[in-house]
Design goal:
heterodimer; A: alpha+beta; 2 domains; 31 helices; B: alpha+beta; outer membrane lipoprotein receptor (LolB), chain A; 41% strand
Chain lengths: 783, 220
């Protein structure tokens, strides 16, 4: 086919591909497609149900909470008045479903009234069971009703000698059984132990209506807060608002990522172009490399967005640096001189296709294995890089096919070769190689691995400091632990809570465990009530007599006797109905303490001790106050990624042995492997704590340096010089990933550092090995 | 809940008034109103000596009167007061129990040494502000919160503190302190004749030194 027709055919193919790709990307809803939610990095169908529950709760309910601390000078009346204005303004905004000042105790009082009203339904079953057990353990000569009446009065007498006895004296005429006083210890603390009151800021709790992870859920919240703030400042010019919400941090993170994306990419592009300008004879010809990079990124974006419904933004942050890798193929094709004058492009490609395909396909195989990872981010990275590299290769092969002269000359120094002619140079090179081997063998043993989900967060220091202040005011601290106990229904969740409470009492003796679930009876005790009531027909008379015997005015307890008779006479409501009546009155922060959706019921508990050992899985309870379980999860994913990487490397190594034979294949594979071990060794000696993303970076770095090893070996086999493309490619890649090391995002920094280190090590190794060799005795042969 | 906290505080504060006395001879009626901010020299001197107490150890008997009980509930115990560390009440009858009140709040401790903090109630902020000056005999703060009636006969005296805020009257009630010279003999928290707490001082020592073990057991 004449070059002219070939050229236009290729251009047509490239244009169609570009239009199709851009068309696909243009029609996407990026708010829906791209996530900044850290929890989207965890699999939806995570195999541990407790972690899935944690994720779900954190994602759906907890993430919609916004906390406000309003500082207003003046007395409490003024502060409350200003806070009321703020609450009122915020409540009117559709962006907020509920806004509650913590100093407003309406919700707590409502709950108190409801528990009092339902005390026989909810609290009597557990009370009966405790007493029945004691009664059964005794000699049972006294009738149940007489025994119980005496027990009630003895306990009442003892209770009056406690500090709580004074506090509850007005309740006792209606509750001599002490149902409410005994409950207090087991529910006290379920509210935020906030530092409200006094001269501190007024604390306001709110729940937003939209998703905090999406701009359409965030912006109305920000607008409403701004408006409320304006109104408050009109009332009290000195008022100062501090607040925290997931949406606020997510929005700032997104802005930060956008900044990093544009800033780092521009810097990366400038560096790559700078290296090209220094090393190439005609810089503008380097523009032929741009379509390769664009093609790689376009292919990667299209493939990733096609394969995944939702893609985490970190994939694009990391993946945007794919350009540094993709340019490898362009360099290799473009910088190879023709084998003979006017060598046709087809012939050149024929010469180079084996190393190109070997490097590209083995790397793709390696990254494709990441698809088997459990972590969505790793799967997405696997697809992104694999698709990007394939696109880069295809684009490079096509693009240079329509360029008149597909060869770009480098400057002399970029092609300069060094040999170990001089013994001193040789010895230094050998010394460096020995040091490198030592570092590679010893250093990795010093590595420390630690996975922390917070490293996935995009730091927003000012906001995070403000958030920490506000959360501390609301009582969050390291001295308490929050647990979630779950169940398919209320009864099973309550049953698990009872078993968890027993475990907790043994594990943390003396520590309190407050939960709204303690107000709910277990199903077993609920069903036992009719039987317990069976022998209590004479209870009222026996109790009156016992009260008089112990110096009480039995008449003062008329409220109790009336309530008791009414309750016994009324038809008994069902278990679920009774619990639903209780949960229906929960408002504000208290509402977050229990969920009773069929199939997904849970109770929160708050304990007065720092996080400790996780409860056994059979208790259906998980602690959520820390990120420990998330970190454990990430630790598990690192092991999984390590296994996959090992398999990937094994496949890459095996393919080398198959393609190049055992000895040559092993030599080729030793370069990426050695570079990786050296980089790990260096990081180990430097005391760097490693995480999952160092491992992923290492995998990427190994695949890149693997390219250099193949290109070097192929040229050596043909008797050619080491191609200058390796130098340029390694420098541009190291520059790209070195830029990543400047990122403020810890995982991106980890990736960048590791890849840059491995690539530079590989380049230095490629340069040093010839220096360390004794030159062939060509002179003698000639002689 | 608010009442619970109030009464806990009242209960804790009560023995802070306790100093040593012999047989109490109580004045039965409150005296005329005395302006706290401009009390006479005699009252001024008494306030200063009461406020200057550093460490106190007392035995006390507490009678609690409830509207539904014909006879009071009687408790006995020991009180330790150390300025700077707060006050500790060790009840010995009817059961052993320790309560500690200091700048950080209220702490309950059982015999096994397990402690439990009583969380602050935001609504009790004003009550705290009202009661702490009583414990410290802080004249200026007392003047803002209470109206004082006082009477003196010879060496014996009686002070009645009535909160100015009607809400506080309902929650705290009337605080009455009886004493002789710079020593408190008895005090009472009264919401009604059938709803009150009497603290009778049996024995007291001031200026005592608490051992390290006592400090560890009875203070935070």
């Amino acid at each position: 086919m004449p070059f002219f027709r070939t050229k236009w055919l290729i251009r047509l193919v490239l244009a169609v591909a570009a239009v199709a790709g851009l068309g696909w990307l243009a029609h996407l809803d990026y708010n829906q497609k791209i996530s900044t939610n850290i929890l989207d990095l965890i699999p939806t169908d995570e195999r541990s149900p407790e972690l899935a529950l944690t994720r779900e709760l954190a994602s759906k309910e907890q993430s919609r909470v916004a906390l406000f601390a309003l500082d207003v000078s003046g007395d409490s009346a003024r502060r409350e008045a200003v806070a009321a204005v703020f609450v009122r303004t915020l409540s009117k905004a559709p962006a907020f479903e509920e806004v509650v000042s913590l100093s407003d105790k309406t919700s707590r009082d409502t709950l108190g009234r409801q528990v009092f009203k339902q005390r026989f339904d909810l609290l009597l079953p557990g009370w009966f069971e405790t007493n029945w057990q004691d009664y059964n353990n005794g000699d049972r000569r006294v009738p149940w009703s007489d025994w119980l009446a005496e027990r009630v009065v003895v306990n009442l007498q003892a209770f009056l000698g406690t500090p709580e006895g004074l506090a509850f004296q007005e309740v006792l005429p209606a509750d001599p059984l002490l149902l409410l006083p005994r409950l207090v210890d087991s529910v006290q603390g379920i509210e935020n132990p906030a530092s409200a009151g006094g001269d501190g800021p007024v604390l306001i709790w709110a729940r937003t209506s939209g998703s905090p992870w999406k701009p359409e859920g965030q912006e109305p919240v920000f607008d409403a807060v701004r408006q409320a703030q304006t109104v408050v400042v009109t009332e009290a010019p000195d008022a100062k608002l501090r607040w925290v919400s997931i949406g606020r941090i997510a929005s700032a993170s997104r802005a930060r990522i956008e900044d990093e994306l544009s800033g780092l990419n521009l810097l990366s592009l400038a560096l790559v172009m700078g290296i090209a300008a220094v090393c190439l004879r005609r810089v503008f010809k380097a523009l032929h490399l741009v379509p390769v990079m664009v093609g790689a990124l376009l292919g990667a974006w299209v493939a990733t967005t096609l394969v995944f419904d939702r893609v985490h933004v970190l994939v694009f942050v990391v993946g945007s640096l794919l350009g540094g890798v993709a340019i490898d193929y362009g360099f290799y094709l473009y910088l190879q001189p023709p084998a003979f004058p006017d060598e046709p492009y087809r012939s050149k490609v024929g010469r180079l296709i084996k190393p190109l395909l070997s490097s590209a396909l083995t790397t793709v195989i390696g990254f494709s294995l990441l698809l088997f990872s459990e972590l969505p981010l790793i799967q997405q990275l696997g697809v992104f890089v694999s698709a990007g590299l394939l696109s880069a290769l295809v684009t490079a092969l096509l693009w240079f096919g329509q360029v008149g002269n597909p060869y770009m000359q480098t400057r002399d120094f970029a092609r300069a070769r060094f040999t170990g002619d001089r013994p001193m140079v040789r010895r230094v090179a050998q010394g460096l190689l020995i040091v490198g081997v030592l570092v590679a063998l010893v250093g990795p043993w010093w590595l420390h691995w630690r996975d922390d989900i917070r490293e996935l967060e995009i730091p927003t220091p000012a906001l995070q400091a403000e958030a920490a202040e506000v959360r501390a005011l609301f009582g969050d601290g390291s001295d308490r632990t929050v647990f979630i106990t779950r169940g398919a229904d209320v009864a099973s969740a309550r049953d698990s809570l009872a078993r968890f409470a027993a475990w907790h009492a043994q594990e943390h003796p003396g520590a309190s465990l407050a939960s709204i679930g303690n107000v709910v009876p277990t199903l077993a005790s609920w069903h036992a009530v009719p039987e317990r009531l069976g022998g209590l027909d004479g209870f009222v008379t026996a109790l009156k007599a016992a009260l008089e015997r112990h110096g009480f005015e039995s008449g003062a307890f008329t409220p109790f006797f009336e309530n008791w008779q009414d309750w016994r006479a009324a038809p008994r409501s069902g278990y679920d109905e009774s619990v639903a009546s209780l949960l229906a009155v929960l408002r504000g922060p208290l509402q977050m303490m229990a969920t009773a959706v069929p199939g997904r019921c849970s109770f929160f508990s708050i304990s007065s001790h720092p996080p400790g050992r996780e409860p056994p899985p059979d208790l259906a309870t998980v602690s959520v106050s820390g990120l420990e379980n998330m970190n454990q999860l990430f630790g598990r994913y690192r092991v999984s990624a390590l296994r996959l990487s090992a398999w990937g490397l094994g496949l890459v190594g095996l393919s080398m042995l198959v393609l190049y034979g055992a000895w040559r294949g092993a030599k080729i594979f030793s370069l990426p492997l050695g570079s990786c071990l050296f980089a790990f060794g260096l990081l180990g000696i430097a005391g760097q704590t490693m995480n999952l993303f160092h491992l992923l970076g290492a995998f990427l770095g190994v695949c890149l340096s693997h390219n250099y090893a193949i290109f070097t070996a192929e040229n050596a086999a043909r008797g050619d010089e080491q191609p200058p493309s390796i130098r340029l490619s390694a420098l541009t890649t190291a520059a790209s990933f070195g830029i990543l090391a400047l990122s403020q995002i810890p995982v991106v920094k980890a990736l960048g550092t590791t890849v840059a280190l491995i690539v530079m090590t590989a380049l230095v190794a490629v340069e040093i090995v010839p220096l360390a060799r004794r030159p062939k005795p060509t002179g003698k042969a000639d002689a | 809940m608010i009442r619970r906290c109030v009464f806990l505080l009242l209960f804790v504060l009560a023995p802070s008034f306790v100093l040593a006395v012999d047989e109490p001879s109580l004045l039965s009626e409150p005296g005329p109103e005395v302006e706290l901010s401009s009390a006479g020299a005699d009252w001024q001197a008494l306030f200063e000596s009461l406020a200057a107490q550093s460490t106190v150890f007392s035995h006390f008997t507490e009678n609690r009167w409830f509207p539904f009980k014909k006879i009071p509930v009687v408790l006995k115990g020991e009180m330790r007061l150390e300025s700077g560390r707060g006050m500790s009440l060790r009840y010995t009858e009817p059961e052993n129990r320790t309560m500690i009140m200091d700048e950080r709040g209220l702490l309950l401790r059982d015999d096994r040494g397990h402690s439990r903090e009583v969380p602050p109630d935001p609504r009790s902020g004003n009550i705290n502000a009202a009661l702490l000056p009583v414990m410290r005999f802080d004249q200026k703060a007392l003047a803002k919160i209470f109206v004082m009636h006082a009477v003196r006969v010879g060496n014996t005296w009686r002070m009645d503190f009535e909160p100015r805020d009607a809400a506080l009257v309902k929650t705290i009630g009337l605080i009455t302190v009886w004493g002789e010279e710079a020593k408190i003999k008895q005090l009472e928290f009264r919401r009604s004749s059938s709803q009150r707490v009497e603290i009778v001082i049996d024995e007291s020592q001031s200026g005592v030194v608490f051992t390290a073990d006592e400090q560890k057991r009875f203070f935070r």
